[in-house]
Write a structure and sequence with these properties.
112 residues; alpha+beta; four-stranded antiparallel sheet; three-stranded antiparallel sheet; 2 helices; 7 strands
Length: 112
Amino acid sequence: MFVIIVYDATPKRGTKLLKYLRQHLNWVQNSVFEGEVTEGELEKIKYGIKQIINEKVDNVIYYVYEAQNYHERGIIGVEKNEIDTIYRKSSKVYEFRTIKCRRQNIKIIFEL
């Protein structure tokens, strides 16, 4: 399944959420993550979020799709974390990213 998670939290807990979610999903922009996960992985992510946030003050919204079947992903303005390509081959999902490192662009392939 494909998941999009957005959050609004106090700065201290927001930083903890950022670090936690980066371990499980692709960071898209400030407070927004997306990625392919299993049902079990999503439950683990939700449990971890509950351990970090204050449910009386903070807010986390998640959207679950059966697959990443959106017709178009558009960006208006600056791309915060550029994802070059995401594609599927049989049951595996791959993501190509370009990362800037010491004034060089490095292409990396992730198997999701």
